[in-house]
Amino acid sequence: MAFAITQNCCNDASCLSVCPVNCIHPTPDEPDFGHTESLYIDPRTCIDCGACADACPVDAITRVSRLPADQAIYAEINADYYRDRPVVAEWATPKFPPAAINTMPRFDVAIVGTGPAACYAAQALLRVPSSRITFYDRLRVPGGLARFGVAPDHTGTRRIGEHFRSMFTHPRVTMKLGVDVGVDVSHATLSERHDYVVYAVGADTDRRLDIPGIDLPGSMSARTLVGWYTGHPDVPADAIDLTGVRRVTIIGNGNVALDAARILTADPEDLVGTDISPHALAALRASTVSEVVIAARRGPEHAAFTRSECQALVTRRGVEVAVSGPEGTKQSIEELPMSAPASALQNAAVVDLNDNDVVPALGSARRIVFGFGRAPIGVSGGQRVDGVEFEDGTVVASDLVLLAIGYRGRPSPGLPFDTAKGAIRNVGGRIVDDNDARVPGRYVVGWAKRGATGGIGDNKVDSEETVEALLEDIADAPPSERRRLGRVKLRSGR
Ligand code: NAP
User: Which of 65, 160, 410, 464 has the fewest CB atoms within 10 Å distance of its CB?
Assistant: First the structure.
């Protein structure tokens, strides 16, 4: 009887390094790594030792025989990953750090940001005994998206924040909170103060959707809702007004949309004792929301959400999940392989979104409708939104519209920016200028490096790649030498 990896998997691969028989895949050196929504345990080779379950930072690994009913499908999902794959129980030749970490000169690194990517970078840097780190954050509380991005009911995932917090009190770490780098202190000054700077600034703006009515009151970014329920200091308690709201339409069907839909339809009593903000809990207790429509412009085969997040919605009690879309949508869902995220919707009822009666017809208190093939062309309303118009002629009456079409980084004067990606220009984590020449001493991790894709654990391997580059550079040019060279270049405007 093997173990299985379940819904919470954060992909940070902590489990891989402790497995004695290499039964967890994909490993970071396999092409699938970073492209699957979770890691999977091969039941053919698992020896049932449980080491992975002990190492998992988010409690996502369980003995198959102990899977609760709503997670039982994960035994099948893990086994399914290996259906056409050979048994790989051998470990690849181990890779050792490129530099001799015990003989490195003392160096200090500024990490701008305190979210997951910043913490994984710090974790990798602190393995070098001569490293010193100073974290900068514009907020007065550290944690970034681990604190203000992960939904409060994802208690397992939020637990990783506790692990990150140990980084902030490490004896070789200094915290500078309430300092907005680029505003309170320039990038050039930071580079003068520290040997190296690692930017972990995330993606703090939204992709734009330029359709008529998008800026009407009652239409806003899902980021506002997320900040509202996690208690982000920038989001006031009255930023979301659910008074009289019966139907919410969310544009986009990534995991941010699913988080928003799940919280808006949750039984508020299930959120008591979580990290939800008190104002959001009070508003949800008084909420009249009966339906959330998640509108995707493409079909079910292109769903942006992960299977595990969708699975968690369909197995929840008290909320119906339905689908809607052009003819053939249901059949497309039925034909999807198990690994496809929307295959979790195979038992969902089909409803007609043109029917604007928002009281769910399925006998439950609340309903979530996954709308497919709904490209938005306008938001209607006078003083406030009253509906969303789609290219196929559908108009979905809506009292609140949330835009969940993805995030982008914000250009900061003095830092090269890749406009297409919405991220800082870099090669493998080394920041490069517009001519692809390296900017000495500056590095980037996380969403600011690769664009706004991937969950918390995806940052581990990504941050380690950047730190590996930084350590290689230290070996090539010791810190004092580098700082002298870097200063010359920065002063000459690069
Ligand atoms: P996302 O996964 O990139 O999804 C964006 C959605 O917006 C897609 O459905 C996309 O549709 C749609 N979209 C983009 N441009 C559009 C347009 N012009 N008109 C209509 N629809 C448009 O973004 P996200 O939900 O913000 O998530 C960002 C990352 O954070 C993801 O990697 C996500 O998995 C991760 N995350 C994970 C969790 C979790 O694990 N629980 C929670 C939150 C976020 P197309 O596919 O057609 O482009």
Answer: 65
Alpha-carbon span 455 to 34, nearest angstrom: 10
Pocket test residue of 204, 206, 250, 256 for ligand 1, highest count of atoms within 8 A of CB: 256
CA of 296 to the centre of ligand 1 (A): 10
Let me know: does 306 contact 339? Beta carbons within 8 Å. Answer: no
Question: Edge-to-edge strands of the sheet including 385-390?
Answer: 376-381, 385-390, 395-397
The model's pTM: 0.91
Question: How far is residue 272's CA from residue 275's CA, in Å, rounded to a whole number?
Answer: 8
Q: Summarize pLDDT for 186-213 with one digit per residue, the tens.
A: 999 999 999 999 999 999 999 999 999 9
Length of the chain: 494
What is the residue-wise DSSP string for 168-207?
HT-TTEEEEES--BTTTB-HHHHHHHSSEEEE-----EEP
Query: Where in the chain do CATH 3.40.50.720 domains reside?
Result: 107-204+407-492
> Assign residue 428 a region: left if phi > 0, alpha if psi is -120 to 50, beta otherwise?
left
CB 38 within 8 A of CB 5: yes
Checking if the pLDDT of 340 tops 70, the result is: yes
CATH architecture of 3-81: 2-Layer Sandwich (3.30)
Q: What is the average pLDDT across 25-33?
A: 90
Domain 213-403, what fold? FAD/NAD(P)-binding domain (3.50.50)
Which residue's CA is the nearest one to ligand 1's atom 38?
A: 255
* 404 C-alpha to ligand 1 centroid (Å): 6
239: number of Cβ within 10 Å: 15
CA of residue 231 to ligand 1 center, whole Å: 22
Interval 276-331: pLDDT, tens: 999 999 999 999 999 999 999 999 999 999 999 999 999 998 899 999 999 999 99
Q: Which residues line ligand 1 (CB under 6 A)?
A: 207, 209, 251-257, 259, 296-298, 302, 304, 309, 376, 404-407, 452-455
Listed in order, the ranges of the chain carrying CATH 3.50.50.60 are 213-403
**Distance separating alpha carbons of residues 457 and 57, to the nearest angstrom:** 10
Q: How far apart are CA 248 and CA 264, in angstroms?
A: 9
